[in-house]
Amino acid sequence: MSLAINWIGLSTIIRREVSRLMRVPIQAFLAPWISALLFIFIFGYVVGGRISLIAGHRYMDFVLPGIVMLNVVNAAFLQASSQVYFARFMRYIEEALVSPLSYAEMILGVIAVVIIRSLATAIGILIIAALFGAARISGIGEFVFWILLVAVVFGLIGQIVGLWANNFEQLTILNIFFITPLSFVGGVFNTVSMLPAWLRWMAWGNPFFYFINGLRHSMIGFTEAPEGLGAAVTMTLACVLGVVVWRLYKVGYGLRE
Amino acid sequence: MEPALSISHLRKVYRGGTVAVEDLSLDIAPGEFFGFLGPNGAGKSTTIHCITGIATPTSGTIKVFGIDAVQNYREARRQIGLSPQEFNVDTFATPVQILDWSGGYFGMGQAERKARVEMLIEKFDLVPHARKQFRQLSGGLKRRVILARALIHDPKLLILDEPTAGVDVELRMDLWRYLRELNAEGKTILLTSHYLEEIERLCRVVAIVNHGRIVSYGTKDALVRESGGVERAYLQATGAAPEHVAAAGK
Fold it and tell me: How many domains does the structure of chain B reveal?
C-alpha cells in the first residue's frame, strides 16, 4: 500500500472547507468576535475597572486569556463537528470515501481548517482587546503552542461528535453540557485560590483549567499549575483522542455502511 | 488478462443482521459493458458501495484490474469512477467546484484539473450552468454533473448506479450515446438500471441479482435466446408471478 501523502487531496479538503466557511462568515468569525467584545467590555472594562488587582494583574488582563480560550475551544469544536456532520448529512462525505484519500489525510484536513478558524478567532479577539489597551503577550511561542494544541484537542473531539451525531441536537449536546460549564469553572474569571476550598479539587481535575492557565501564562506570565503539567496533560489528551479518531475512521464509524 | 472487476464470494451483513449481499461472485472483462439488474433492495447498490469504499465488505474479495479494493484501496479507487443513485454533493456548491474538488481528491494538479473540468463542462452541455449552485439545477442537469464528476479523473472502470433515473427521454438518449462512446474508447462500464430497455440497448453481458445473490448471469444474447427477452429473463430470475412472466414481451 502506498504511504505517500496525497498532498493535493489534503489541500483540496482544506480549500473546500474554507470555501464553505466563507459562505457563513458572520457565524464563523463575526459571532465570536462580537461575543468576545462584549465580554471584554463588560467584564474587563466596566466591571474590571472597579476590581483591584488580581494576582498582581489588572482584571482585564487576567480575564482576556480565558475569553480567548473560550472562543478558541468553541471555534475548534464547532468547525470540526459541523465539517464532519454536514458532510455526512448531505452525503458528500462519499466523495472523499470513493477517492484515494487516506484516513489520516481526512483527519488532518479537518484539523488544518480547525487551526485556521481557531487562529483567526484568536487574532481577531486580540485586535479587539488591543483597542481596550489589553492583549499583552509575554511568550508568543507559548501562546501559539496553546492555541494550536487546544485547537487540535477540540478538533478531534469535534470529529468524534460529528461522526456520532445523527441529528442537529446531538451535535450541540457536548457543548451545552460539558464544554461551556467546564470552561466557565476552569478559571476564566477567577483564580483557583478564590474558589471555596472544597471546590478547588474540581479545578485541578478540569482540563479546561490547564488550557486557560497555560494561555494565561503565555500572555501575562501568571500560572497556578506546575510548569509542564498542563502541557503534558493536554498533549496526552491530544494523543489519546488522535488514536480514537483514527480508529473510528479506520472502522468507518459513522462514515461507511 | 486481469479482469477489470473481479468479485469473489462477497458477503455484506449490515449492523442489525440484514444480509444485503450473499456469496456474490462475478468477473467483468476490460472494455465490457456490463448490466447489473435486480429489484429494489436486491443488493446492487450495496455491491457497488463495497466496490467503491462507501461500504465495508463483511467477507470476500474485490479486485479492480487486479488491485485489492480493501488492502490497496487507494490504488484501486484511482481506477474507478462512480455515479451514484442519489445526489451525494454539497448542494450549495457549483458544478465547477464539485468537479474541481473531486479532481483534487484524486490528486490531480491544478492545470490538469482545470483542463479536465472545462472539457467535461462543455461535453455535458453545462456551460450556462457552470457557476450556478447545484440545488438550482434541474434533475437532468444534476444527473449530468454527477456523471461528469465520475469522469473527472479519467477512470478505467465506470460504475453507474441508475444514471438515467428521473431523466427525460432526450437526455437519456444523449447519455446512451455518450456511454457508448466511452465504452468504444475502452472504458469498462458497470451499469445498473430499472429500465430494461436501457440494459438491452447498451450491455453485452448481464447479471441479475435477487436477495443478494446472482440468479442469472451471461451474455445478453444468450439471455434473450433462452428466455425470449431481457424482460422475461428478469421476471423469471427474480421470481415474479407467472402471469407477469407470461405477459412480458407480449
Answer: 2
